[in-house]
Amino acid sequence: MLSQPFVQHAYIAGSAVAVACGLLGYFLVLRAQVFTADALSHVAFTGALAALAFGVDVRLGLLTVTVAVAVLMGLLGPRGRADDVVIGGVFAWVLGLGVLFLSLYTTHRSGGNGAAGINVLFGSIFGLSAGRSWLTVAITGGVTLVLLAGWRPLLFATIDDGVAAARGVPVRLVGVGFLALTGVTAAEATQVVGALLLLGLLAAPAGAAVQLTTTPGRGAAVATVLALVSVWAGLAFSYAVPRVPPSFGIIAVATVGYAAALVWRRAILVHSP
Amino acid sequence: MNGSWNLVTDVRQMWSLPFMVNAYRAGTVAALLAALVGYFMILRKQTFAGHTLSVVGFPGAAGATWLGISATFGYFAFCLSSAAVIAAVPAGGRRRTDQSALIGTVQAFALACGFLFVALYNGFLGGTTALLFGSFLGITSRQVLVLVVVAVLIVIALAVIGRPLVFASLDGDVARAHRVPVRLLDVIYLLLLGAAVAETAQITGVLLVFTLLVLPPATAQRLTARPARGILLAAVLAVVSTWVALGVAFYSPYPFGFWLSTITFAEYVAVVAGAAVVRAC
């Protein structure tokens, strides 16, 4: 299986995205900001459709738009966390714009069809070129490094932003910067693995990690490992059963892991005095 | 279709087509229902759950089509069971954190299932776009009737639990101290939200129910803090926006969903900006 170039590319890009998403997701879950990430992945979805509609390859533009919206969301809320209603409102409009671009694309581009929107939502991880997958590694690797470098202030601001602010941590800056990193990951991962897969990799492994351990370092490690395992097992599964799309395989493994963690925690709570 | 800038003639021309009349009927009911249910969603800060439940309609419909049964069953089965799963997460100190991860996982898994069903049922791809983004052109009179019945049932249920629900939404702890069954209301509300979304999504598409759920109630809440007045205002905003969006979409090459979300978002921005100006003066 691994001798096929397209499988290699999928594994390389998938692993890089998984590591970044596991780490990012852990903080997103701790900060209760999964909804923000969901909205950002849809911003990336709309941006990708806009690029298709206007027939330009605006990878940089997509990145700029997603990061800009991420920073905007951070600035709108107190301490770099946006209000649910504000996110929802922006989100709804962004979806409407996505519909517009999809219809522009399907009516004005020859050979265009509804499948474009589907590809953007669900990705085509088995269709990556070598260059594309290494670019993904570079970008998501950068995100991972920045997250690790800013680990302590980010964790402090996440767990108790009031005390962190009192101790001189620039809470607002950290919050906005964190959302910007999420934006970068969303823009990159949406092009590679689809908006749908992104949300699954952000929420499920981190959700499981939060159930399994309360130690931050261990939790982030568990989330990252679970995300990696999901991607590896999911890709292998969908390679073995070609009718099953890779996105489904990966999300299914991640979801099973999350459900198992929930059940395990419940069992412990029942058995402990 | 060309508009003549004479509104009366335009509307008469539009309503001479049976499918547009049905679109207006269905749109009105969907807007009323979504505004009412959405008002509580905003009040309870369950926007993420609302978005997830609306997205869940997609695998429901795709799965039903794959199995060859009526899509309506699929919508209701998936939306209601997802609502039950989200409601089942135990309440506790870290509730918000846990719930956010759970809801995200439910959404991703549901979408993945939808994609799987689409892949298993070859040749369904053209319909997928209609499922996601809705199509107001093919609504039958029977669909409108079903929509009305479901809407009436949901409105009755909400009217019955309305007062305690507002109490529990605004201050859960105090409500619990007054022996309001907060947890039960929580579950009932999520199920009602699931049912409303399942029904509305069949008309507007799963991605755009969210527009009607969020924006008119959010705008209304900026204008008044009183629940009764807010609900009324949200309903009026939703219905008027839907009517205008349907009319504009009929005469323009751009889709209904784009117009609906743009109009409702413009109202929201106008109210937020207006409030800022008033505060500054």
List the helices and strands and how they pair.
The complex is a heterodimer of chains A (273) and B (281).
Chain A: H1 5-30, H2 34-53, H3 59-76, H4 84-108, H5 115-122, H6 130-149, H7 151-159, H8 161-166, H9 171-212, H10 216-240, H11 246-271
Helix pairs in contact in A: 1-6, 1-9, 1-10, 2-3, 2-4, 2-5, 2-9, 3-9, 5-9, 6-9, 7-9, 9-10, 9-11, 10-11
Chain B: H1 7-15, H2 18-43, H3 47-67, H4 71-87, H5 95-120, H6 125-133, H7 141-170, H8 172-177, H9 182-204, H10 209-223, H11 227-251, H12 256-280
Structure description:
The complex is a heterodimer of chains A (273) and B (281). Chain A is an all-alpha fold and 273 residues long. Chain A has helices at 5-30, 34-53, 59-76, 84-108, 115-122, 130-149, 151-159, 161-166, 171-212, 216-240, 246-271. In chain A, helix 1 (5-30) crosses helix 9 (171-212), helix 2 runs parallel beside helix 4 (84-108) and helix 7 crosses helix 9 (171-212). The longest helix of chain A is centred in the C-terminal third of the chain and has 42 residues, at 171-212. Chain A is globular, with a radius of gyration of 19 Å. Chain A starts with a helix and ends with a helix. Chain B is an all-alpha fold and 281 residues long. Chain B starts with 6 loop residues before the first helix and ends with a helix. Chain B is globular and about 60 Å long. The model of chain B has no long low-confidence stretch (mean pLDDT 83). Chain B contains 12 helices and no strands. The longest helix of chain B is centred in the middle third of the chain and has 30 residues, at 141-170. At the A-B interface, helix 1, helix 2, helix 4, helix 5 and helix 9 of A face helix 3, helix 5, helix 6, helix 10 and helix 12 of B.
